[in-house]
Amino acid sequence: MSSPRTAKTTTSDLGPLPTASARSNDRWLKLAAPFLVGIIFLGGWEAAVRIMAIPPYILPTPSRIIETLVSDWPTLAASLRITLAITFSALAAAVVVGGALAILFTQFKWVELALFPYAVILQVTPIVAIAPLIIIWVNDTNLSLLICAWIVAFFPILSNTILGLNSADHNLRNLFELYGATRWQTLRYLRLPAALPYFLAGLKISGGLALIGAVVAEFVAGTGGTASGLAYRILEAQYQLKIPRMFAALTLISLAGVAIFLATSIIAHRLLHRWHESAIKREN
Amino acid sequence: MREASAPSLAPVDPLIRLSGVSKTFSTGTRAVEAVDLDLMPGEFLSILGPSGCGKSTLLRMIAGLGAPTGGEIQWASGHGGGSRYGTRDLGFVFQDPTLMPWANALDNVALPLILEGAAKREAQAAARDKLALVGLAGFESAYPRELSGGMKMRVSIARGLVTEPSLLLMDEPFAALDEITRHRLNHDLLNVWRDVGFTAVFVTHSVFESVFLSQRIVVMAARPGRIVSTLDVGAPYPRDEMFRTSSSYASLCRQASDQLKTAMGG
């Protein structure tokens, strides 16, 4: 009964060399290609603005935007902090409420039947239409922004987690039944791990949506002039025709979005790379 | 009550007695009809039949997955009531390895004990023993995707044995494996069976496999699913490649094959 081990060594003997070099090549390309595209795009932009002498209040050059980012950094950084705080609180609330509701829905069918339609209504109603109401009802501006961002962010987590909890392998369910697993054991050892990849896919979407929700809600609230997140900076810069500052704020929002996406992708990879097909490199 | 007057053919009481067991699905399909079968302690029994003859359904009913719609399944006293922690005194090996992809081999094998409420350390120690028993010592931390089909099936068998059940039910466990792997697993399964001494019920559609493995072969026919004949395989254990190439093996295979043909109405 010692043969399986030999089988394993043979397969790994075939593998490493070509795979390792292919992998580093792949990683190199993954970084270099987008970087190159970025350089070409920004260089073209810079050149076009200079050659056609477009005034900065129409379209500033990338170098001018970077200058503004540096010179206005204290104001912009404070706004970035506020926007990020709202985004992450909303995302955390979406994870907790979305995840808990998903578990509740799959454990008690009648709760799902009763509440799911309202979750859908909350999802399909445009946030810009609800935001003014929430801002009127909730006195604390930051809290109202958080609620708006949460409404946008929680649905992908809810629906993905429900799908994941229901997609546990049927044979495994039989196995759990066979060994007399309790409902709690089935949840803990079978349904939650099976739902993890789905939940993480939802988290990736919700991370971006939380930021969008936070910014959109602030645009709506910003007319009241109380908040001071990045969206408010954009509105303010627009009124004052400080277009480079608008672009600088926009750049920060984009970078924040990219950072959130990368962070959620890394979390997903960390949690799944040992076992889930999505995180495994195909080798053939 | 069982008829006390019925002459007892076997010197020992059966581990499980199936009497008139039937299963009719809600669609009206008569998957299993009036099956009488005694499973003797420690025996290796194969259920041989074409696909759709209800052999898997029968096995699942013995396991308690889905109750029969007629007849009854009786366990000998002291069994069926449960193993140490109170679940049924059996292990089940599915057609697919049915492993949790997110757990390594050790945790997969330990699962039945964890579900029975055993302490993690204790469950893992037992799982380690069973992995060694099926020849997978050293693969405790391997994830299912890192294992070959045959190795996954070994993990699945180790999991079936981890509660030390009196009965191991196997539902075409090697059907998806290549012939070389299948032969090796047949051989190793017999060794484990002889070492541990559980009662084995092995569902298969392979004549050769059933003859190689079992002491007794029950042949089933479809529509409705029923037992049509029984074949005793007298060959002594250990059985190895010598037996597989012997003339007695060939003639037994011919007999089983003829019975299967009759069962299929040919």
Helix and strand composition category of chain B: alpha/beta
Q: Would you count the extended β strands of chain A for me?
A: 0
Q: Distance between the terminal alpha carbons of chain A, to the nearest Å?
A: 29 Å
The CATH architecture category of the largest domain in chain B equals: 3-Layer(aba) Sandwich
The biggest beta sheet of chain A, please?
none
Shape of chain B from CA axes?
Answer: globular
Number of helices of chain A: 11
CATH superfamily of the largest domain in chain B: P-loop containing nucleotide triphosphate hydrolases
Q: What's the quick description here?
A:
Chain B: Keywords: ATP-binding, Nucleotide-binding, Transport. Chain A is mostly helical and 284 residues long.
Describe this structure in words.
- The complex is a heterodimer of chains A (284) and B (266).
- With 284 residues, chain A is mostly helical.
- Helices cover 83% and strands 0% of the residues of chain A.
- In chain A, helix 9 packs antiparallel against helix 11 (243-272).
- Chain A starts with a helix and ends in a 12-residue tail after the last helix.
- The relative contact order of chain A is 0.11.
- Chain B is α/β, with parallel strands linked by helices and 266 residues long.
- Chain B folds into 2 domains: 16-79 and 166-263, P-loop containing nucleotide triphosphate hydrolases (Rossmann fold, 3-Layer(aba) Sandwich); 98-165.
- Helix content of chain B is 35%, strand content 22%.
- Chain B has helices spanning 55-63, 105-115, 120-133, 149-161, 179-196, 207-213, 241-244, 247-263; strands at residues 16-24, 30-39, 44-48, 70-75, 90-93, 167-171, 199-204, 216-221, 226-232.
- In chain B, helix 2 (105-115) packs across helix 3 and helix 2 (105-115) runs parallel beside helix 4 (149-161).
- Classes of the chains: A mainly alpha (284), B alpha/beta (266).
- The A-B interface holds A 1-5, 7-8, 169, 171-172, 174-181, 185, 189-190, 193-194, 196, 274-276, 280 and B 63-65, 86-88, 92, 94, 96, 98, 100-103, 111-112, 114-116, 134-136, 138-139, 143-145, 148, 150-151, 154, 163, 184, 188, 191.
